[in-house]
Amino acid sequence: MIPRWPRRRCLAAPLLALLVGAPGLVAAQAPPAAASCIACHGAQGEGQAAPGYPRLAGLPADYLQRQLQAYAGGMRANPIMTPLARAMSAAERDQVAAYFSALPAPARAASAAPVVAADVAELALRGRWSEGLPGCMQCHGPQGVGVGAIPPLSGQPARYLAAQLQAWQGGKRPPGPLGLMASVAARLSAADVAALANHFGTGPRAVPGPAAVEPARAVATGFVPPPLSTIPDNEFGKVVRQGLAIFEHTGTNAPAFSGNALACVNCHLDAGRLAGASPLWAAYLAYPAYRAKNGHVNTFEERMQGCFRFSMNGKAPPLGSPTLVALQSYAYWLASGARVDPNLPGRGYPKLAKPASAPDRARGEKVFAADCAFCHGPEGQGQQAGAVQVFPPLWGPRSFNWGAGMGSVANAAAFVKANMPLGRGGSLSDQDAWDVALFMDSHERPQDPRFVDSVAVTRQRFHDSPMSMYGRRVDGVLLGEQSVPAGGSTVH
Ligand code: HEC
Ligand code: HEC
Ligand code: HEC
Ligand code: HEC
């Protein structure tokens, strides 16, 4: 059992913010305590690949501060660092953390293993969701550059990276925020650890250690779509690949039809393959179908138009357009070998039973702060690494609009329970999932594109359900009244 991240934010954060932001403090002025560090960590905090001394430059300040605290407290045991961290006062640890954090990240060094096996690249990028394992870059950002409070993997010695993963596997490093890394490491084999360390790291290669633990393996049930590496190399395969590219990078590959910072894959996880996250293969086999939302039989293409218009806050691509043909080809290919059945196990988001007590916003806000803000940001705005949206926004002008399926508290609770926090799906209680879903869906977002006359009329026409907060008053604000227009052409 991995302990939950304590419900407390980093106490030193305000102090660090002061130190980092203080106008008089130039990065070049090393605090006295830093003098003894550079022998190993390098004059610019760049680290040393051969002996495996990690890079400190440009790492998140609160991350460094927590590591020094963990060494000092013995939770992260290391014969070199523990005595060094203990010799510093708490204030000195904060100072050196702020100092190294402010140093520029070293230029990218060559990877330890420049030729990367396709399966390692896939594990690093998309993970292995059959075992509940997200891709490393889903949290560590593109090429592992680090995002917000999540440290970089790039520029670290390969052997150091391997040693850290092994430390988590052996319970020798604190589980860290939300137990995310302890849970990730538990799903890696000895061969995975070495391959990933070489993929992201620099310097001498890491070699597989003894298999200390048997990786946790979830049992895959029901239909399993074919691996992406088997997309055929022909004209059809080319279009299937285009569909995959649109699904994963919707704003880049279907800019005319996207009106927010989301991508299809943000809600349909693992490239639309994950059972319980509304997989595309199950959806493909369930249409044409009657939908109450628009009162007629919808084809699969028309169903996808809905997600563009509402979830993507964009415009529906015309039926038969290259965008929909590519997405449909990808979905059809994923469904290879499955039977036509609207009730294929794994379809949709598993419905969540009614909570014991009515969903509550104040409780939901606490769940959000403890379990979601770390990635989605304190204002639900998401986080980017450069131009890449690593953690998607949950509300506000860059998120899904009021007409989207995720705007239903029941849908959101079901999605969150099964899939969030990323990589720890199923860990929230049902009550927490309902509460946080209500909190998330009680914030402004782009207008419902079906808007007519007024918020009240629009609510009555399209949101007349206890599961929609549209047109409800929250903290004095009538939700829907301050929405930016739907279609979001100005807020990519
Ligand atoms: C004799 C070499 C040596 C010296 C001197 C040294 N370190 Fe380290 N440091 C290491 C090694 C080795 C590790 C990796 C330990 C592990 O595996 O946990 C490390 C790890 C760290 C980490 C964790 C990095 C991460 O990415 O999690 C921090 C932070 C750190 N050192 C800070 C410092 C500071 C601050 C000083 C100066 C007060 C210092 N070190 C001095 C060798 C050294
Ligand atoms: C769900 C989010 C998430 C995923 C996915 C993830 N990580 Fe992490 N990783 C973190 C967090 C958070 C930390 C910081 C842990 C801490 O503060 O103790 C971290 C830290 C690390 C560190 C320690 C870095 C250092 O400087 O000591 C390594 C190594 C690492 N991750 C490797 C990986 C690898 C390899 C993968 C892919 C198999 C991966 N991570 C996937 C969230 C994630
Ligand atoms: C903000 C989250 C979100 C995004 C982004 C999103 N969807 Fe959806 N999608 C949903 C939800 C929620 C449902 C289920 C709605 C319901 O049951 O009423 C759904 C349903 C679907 C379905 C029907 C599933 C079924 O089994 O009937 C398809 C197909 C689909 N989405 C495709 C897409 C495509 C293609 C994109 C990108 C263009 C996309 N979605 C973007 C949330 C999202
Ligand atoms: C470890 C980081 C992390 C944590 C913690 C986390 N999420 Fe997410 N969340 C993600 C990522 C990454 C995605 C996109 C998944 C993808 O593209 O594969 C996502 C997607 C989502 C989405 C769908 C996309 C959108 O923007 O609407 C919702 C809703 C969501 N998360 C809600 C939550 C809630 C609620 C919590 C807290 C209970 C939470 N998440 C905790 C990383 C995280």
Question: How would you sum up this structure in a few lines?
Answer:
The protein is mainly alpha-helical and 492 residues long. Helices cover 37% and strands 3% of the residues.
Can you tell me the CATH class of the largest domain?
Mainly Alpha
So, the CATH homologous superfamily of the largest domain?
A: Cytochrome c-like domain
- Compounds present? heme C
**Tally of structural domains:** 4
Shape: globular
| CATH-defined architecture of the largest domain | Orthogonal Bundle
Number of helices: 21
Q: Count all strands and give the number.
A: 6
| Derived structural class | mainly alpha
Could you walk me through the main structural features you see in this protein, from its secondary elements to its overall organization?
This protein has 492 residues and is mainly α. It has four domains: 13-102, Orthogonal Bundle (Cytochrome Bc1 Complex, Chain D, domain 2), CATH 1.10.760; 118-200, Orthogonal Bundle (Cytochrome Bc1 Complex, Chain D, domain 2), CATH 1.10.760; 228-334, Cytochrome c-like domain (Cytochrome Bc1 Complex, Chain D, domain 2, Orthogonal Bundle), CATH 1.10.760; 361-478, Cytochrome Bc1 Complex, Chain D, domain 2, CATH 1.10.760.10. The protein has helices at residues 13-21, 38-41, 61-73, 81-86, 90-102, 118-125, 136-140, 158-169, 180-185, 190-200, 235-248, 250-253, 269-272, 280-284, 300-311, 322-334, 361-371, 373-376, 409-419, 430-440, 455-462; strands at 289-291, 296-298, 383-385, 388-391, 473-474, 477-478. It has a two-stranded antiparallel ribbon with strand order 1-2. The chain has a two-stranded antiparallel sheet with strand order 3-4. The chain has a two-stranded antiparallel sheet with strand order 5-6. The longest helix is centred in the middle third of the chain and has 14 residues, at 235-248. Mean pLDDT is 91; it is low at 1-27. The structure holds heme C (HEC) (4 copies). One heme C is lined by residues 250, 262, 264, 266-268, 278, 282-283, 286, 303-304, 307-308, 311-312, 327, 347-348, 400, 404-406, 411. One heme C (HEC) is lined by residues 33, 36-37, 39-41, 53-54, 56, 59, 64, 67-68, 76, 78, 80-81, 84, 96, 151, 163.
